[in-house]
Design brief:
Belongs to the TOP6A family. By secondary structure, the protein is an alpha/beta fold. It has 12 helices and 15 strands. Helix 1 runs antiparallel to helix 2 and helix 2 crosses helix 5.
Length: about 350
C-alpha cells in the first residue's frame, strides 16, 4: 500500500513537471516570452495595528519570472536545471541531498542558497513538500528515550537503553505509524506494545526538546531518561526539516505533551518559534513542519534571580540582539496566539 501511494505521488509529480516544461517550450517555439508565476507564502506579518490575515494555507501574492529580465533568466535557468535533477531522482526512485544537487552545476548555481530557493520554488509550483521531490537534507537531529520505531525496515530501539543517542531519520516519511496492538511484552518491568504489532511504540509521558547538543549530551550523561519517562530531541540549534517533521509525527501519533528548553536570548526564542510556528523560508509547508502544542519550558529572564545565578553566567545583549528582539516582537502570531510569550 505504501509503495502504491509513493508510485502514485511520483507519477503525479512527473506529470506536473512534464506539463510545466512543455508549456515553456511551446511558448518559446511560438516566439513568445514564457513566464513563471510563483505563489508567495508567509507564516507571519508585522502589522502593528493587529489587523492580520496571515494564513498557512493562503498565498500572499505572487512573483512573476520572465525571460525579459536578465536576473530572472538566470533564476529560471537554475529552476529548470534543478527540476531536471528532481525528475531523474523520481524516475529512478533515488534520493539526493541539496548539496548533491549544488555540486552538479557549481559554476551555474554559485552558492547553496540559490539551489535552496529553487527547491522551494519547485515545491510551490508543484504543490508538494520537499520530501516528495526525493530531495533530502543531511540530518542533524538526535533522539533518545522511551521510544522504538521502524524506518525503511531499520529498527531504532531506544527502549532497552533509553539514554543511548540515535540520529533522527532523514526519511521521516518511511517511519511507520502505530497500528492496533494485541500482544504486549515486558522490558525493565514496563509493559509496552510488541514490535510484532506496531512499528512505533512508546511508554514516555512527555517529549522534551532542547536547543543545544551540549545540553542533550549532558542529559544523556546524567542518565536523565533512566529516571524520567520521556523522549528527548535536539535539532542542534535551528532545527532541520527531518527534526521538525519527526517531532510533528511523534506528537500527532503519540499524543504526548511537548516541552521546549532554549537559551534565554533572541536566538533561543527564535528556535522555539520555529518549532511552534515554522519558518518563513518554508512557510508554504508550515502545516507539516509546526508543532502548535509545544510549551515553552524556559529558560526565562527571571530564572537568573530565581536560581541565584552568578553574574558571570550572564552575557549582555548586543545591538544585534536588541534589533532581532524588536523585530520578533512585531510578529503577528505572538500577538494572536501566544501573547504571554511576547
Amino acid at each position: 500500500m505504501e509503495e502504491n501511494r509513493w508510485s502514485s505521488q511520483s507519477s503525479d509529480l512527473l506529470r506536473k513537471i512534464r506539463e510545466f516544461t512543455r508549456s515553456i517550450v511551446e511558448d518559446l517555439s511560438k516566439g513568445q516570452s514564457p513566464f513563471v508565476s510563483i505563489q508567495r507564502f508567509r507564516n507571519y506579518c508585522t502589522n502593528s495595528n493587529g489587523e492580520c490575515n496571515c494564513s498557512y494555507d493562503k498565498s500572499n501574492g505572487q512573483e512573476i519570472l520572465t525571460f525579459q529580465k536578465e536576473t530572472h533568466v538566470h533564476r529560471i535557468d537554475v529552476l529548470l536545471r534543478v527540476l531536471l535533477i528532481v525528475q531523474q531522482l523520481l524516475q529512478e526512485n533515488r534520493h539526493g541531498s541539496k548539496r548533491d544537487i549544488y555540486y552538479m552545476h557549481p559554476l551555474v548555481f554559485s552558492e547553496q542558497s540559490v539551489v535552496d530557493r529553487a527547491i522551494n520554488d519547485i515545491c510551490i509550483l508543484m504543490q508538494c513538500s520537499r520530501h516528495n521531490l526525493n530531495v533530502v537534507p543531511v540530518g542533524n537531529g538526535l533522539v533518545m528515550g522511551w521510544l522504538r520505531f521502524l524506518e525503511a525496515g531499520k529498527k531504532f530501539d531506544c527502549m532497552n537503553s533509553p539514554n543511548t543517542v540515535h540520529p533522527i531519520p532523514v526519511l521521516v516519511e518511511d517511519v511507520k505509524v502505530p497500528c492496533h496492538q494485541s500482544r504486549r511484552q515486558i522490558c525493565s518491568g514496563i509493559s509496552f506494545p510488541s514490535l510484532f504489532d506496531a512499528d512505533i511504540v512508546s511508554v514516555a509521558q512527555y517529549i522534551l526538546v532542547v536547543e543545544k547538543e551540549s545540553v542533550f549530551q549532558r542529559l544523556a550523561n546524567d542518565q536523565f531518561c533512566k529516571t524520567n519517562r520521556c523522549i528527548v530531541i535536539t535539532g542542534r540549534g535551528y532545527p532541520d526539516v527531518p527534526t521538525r517533521r519527526f517531532l510533528q509525527l511523534l506528537t500527532e501519533k503519540l499524543r504526548l505533551p511537548v516541552y521546549c528548553l532554549v537559551d534565554c536570548d533572541p536566538y533561543g526564542f527564535d528556535i522555539l518559534a520555529t518549532y511552534r510556528f515554522g519558518s518563513m523560508q518554508m512557510a508554504y509547508d508550515a502545516k507539516f513542519l509546526r508543532v502548535p502544542n509545544i510549551h515553552w519550558l524556559g529558560t526565562f529572564p527571571s530564572d537568573s534571580e530565581k536560581y541565584n545565578l552568578p553574574q558571570r553566567c550572564l552575557l549582555p545583549l548586543t545591538a544585534e540582539d536588541k534589533r532581532k528582539t524588536e523585530a520578533m516582537l512585531l510578529r503577528c502570531y505572538l500577538h494572536r496566539e501566544v501573547p504571554s510569550w511576547r
